[in-house]
Write a structure and sequence with these properties.
alpha+beta; Alpha-Beta Plaits; Chitinase A, domain 3; Trigger factor, domain 2; 14 helices; about 45% helix
Length: about 475
């Protein structure tokens, strides 16, 4: 190669303009001639022995040139990438022949993303704290009571908290939506089904429970028609008319057990024998659930805050890989083969293009988060704790074998693999990076000082995320596609 010119392009692409030595082009042409002459029978010559002029006369000069270029291009591009020290993350997105004499090739290559976290150390966001309410505690007790409730048939109309047993049919006609597409019709039938009628709970369809109050047992169809307008409905159902046809065979009244120490003992919960102990245990569990949700919501918030201040560039191939990982999980690995993928697509009634389009936005968000957290772990010097990974593997083996020594070797061979270790290490780094981001966002503002107390030293500038090549970290993040907890 006599010359290589590189140019950085948007979206983590780099353009390589490569001028190839004439001698190398000529060698490739001769090699193409020998290959073609072995594959094509040329009158008067043995296979592989026909001269160039005879081969070109038989198949055409353009075919000879195309054969030479097909073999030469990948080698030329690979050598240019190595010579320029470029970290690529996928095959060339576009390869063009700029000229033939001299031979000049232009290749666009996807390279590792660049991430600048900006002034991330200045990010602040208050963290919400919530205590379990008395209503939540009462609901938890009620849910336990309902697990042991007695259902008795009654001769009256339907009331709140009753159970209905019967046959029903739900019909929602198709509708053309605002975008011009058609929302598909719904026609669902169930026989001898039992379900509760409760306030603030969905009974088969949102808003249906209120319509069932006052109905009676009847061998005839009872028809309810109303418009679906509940706030939590999927967009494709809002505003559509629903027809609900039911034959009520039986109405049952729910009788809840009394909550006393005797009832608590019957639950057979270890260490819990009184009502107060049950309430304390439930409160603890509820508070843990509340805290976990707050933590998850807060991490979502500060991740969005970090992304808002960061500058991230990445090639589209990484988004496509993230989509591949999502499809692999959602199809339960059926996508490992083309046949399996096609069967899965048929089962969900969608084309591959429709699935990929639907997953694109989530894949992009996931990728951006992974890249930002990967960069944060680098600039904050967050490293993998190998001992913690060992402990996690030992714990997993213990849970499978229950301490049975004879099974430990087999379980370790199954679990303790390089891929699983990488997964644990990746998740550990992500968790620690998120924990560090929480520390930053919840830090108290620096105390103000008098001018007289200021040091004469030059103040340090805020650290910014490095713009660096991270092929390994990026590929691991995308392949694992781990969602932050």
């Amino acid at each position: 190669m006599t010359a290589i010119t590189s140019e950085r392009l948007p979206d983590s692409l780099i353009s390589l303009e490569i001028e190839v030595e004439p001698e190398r082009v000529e060698k490739s042409m001769e090699k193409a001639v020998r290959k073609i002459s072995q594959q094509v029978k040329i009158k008067g010559f043995r296979p592989g022995k026909a001269p160039r002029r005879a081969v070109e006369a038989s198949v055409g000069a353009e075919q000879v040139f195309a054969t030479a270029i097909d073999e030469l291009l990948p080698l030329i591009v690979e050598e240019a990438v190595k010579e320029e020290g470029i970290n690529i993350v996928g095959p060339a997105e576009d390869v063009d022949l700029k000229s033939r004499d001299p031979l000049v090739i232009v290749a666009k290559m996807p390279v590792t993303p660049t991430v600048d976290l900006g002034e991330y150390e200045a990010l602040r966001a208050p963290k919400q704290e919530l205590d379990v309410t008395e209503e939540q505690k009462a609901e938890a007790i009620l849910n336990i009571q309902r697990r042991f409730a007695i259902l008795e048939p009654v001769d009256r109309s339907v009331a709140w908290n009753d159970f209905i047993r019967g046959d029903f049919r739900v019909e929602i006609p198709e509708r053309e939506n605002d975008s011009g597409a058609t929302d598909e019709a719904v026609d669902q039938t169930e026989e001898d089904t039992e379900f509760p009628v409760r306030e603030n709970e969905v009974a088969l369809l949102p808003g249906l429970a209120e319509q069932l109050i006052g109905l009676n047992v009847s061998e005839d169809d009872q028809v309810i028609e109303y418009e679906l307008n509940a706030e939590d409905l999927p967009e494709g159902l809002i505003g559509r008319s629903a027809k609900f046809t039911i034959v009520i065979k039986e109405i049952k009244e729910e009788t809840l057990p009394q909550v006393d120490d005797e009832f608590v003992i019957s639950l057979d919960e270890e260490g819990i024998t009184t009502v107060s102990e049950l309430q304390a245990s439930l409160t603890k569990q509820l508070q843990e659930n509340v805290d976990a949700k707050i933590k998850n919501d807060y991490r979502e918030e500060i991740l969005d805050l970090l992304l808002a201040t960061a500058s991230i560039e990445y090639p589209n191939i990484l988004v496509e890989r993230a989509i591949d990982q999502m499809i692999d999980r959602e199809s339960n690995h059926a996508s490992h083969t083309q046949e399996g993928l096609e069967q899965w697509l048929e089962s969900i009634g969608q084309s591959e293009e429709e699935v990929r389009s639907a997953l694109h936005d989530n894949a992009t968000i996931s990728l951006r988060r992974e890249l930002a957290l990967s960069e944060l772990s680098t600039v904050e010097k967050i490293e993998v704790d190998a001992e913690a990974v060992d402990d996690q593997i030992d714990t997993a083996i213990e849970s499978i074998t229950s301490g049975q020594e004879g099974l430990e070797t087999q379980a370790r061979q199954l679990i303790d693999t390089p891929d699983y270790r990488r997964t644990l290490a990746s998740q550990q780094v992500i968790d620690n990076a998120l924990a560090r981001l929480e520390e930053i966002c919840t830090a108290e503002p620096e105390a103000l000082v008098d001018d007289s107390e200021l040091s004469t030293e030059k103040p340090k500038t805020s650290r910014r995320g490095s713009r660096r090549s991270k092929a390994t970290a990026t590929d691991e993040a995308v392949s694992e596609n781990t969602e932050p907890s």
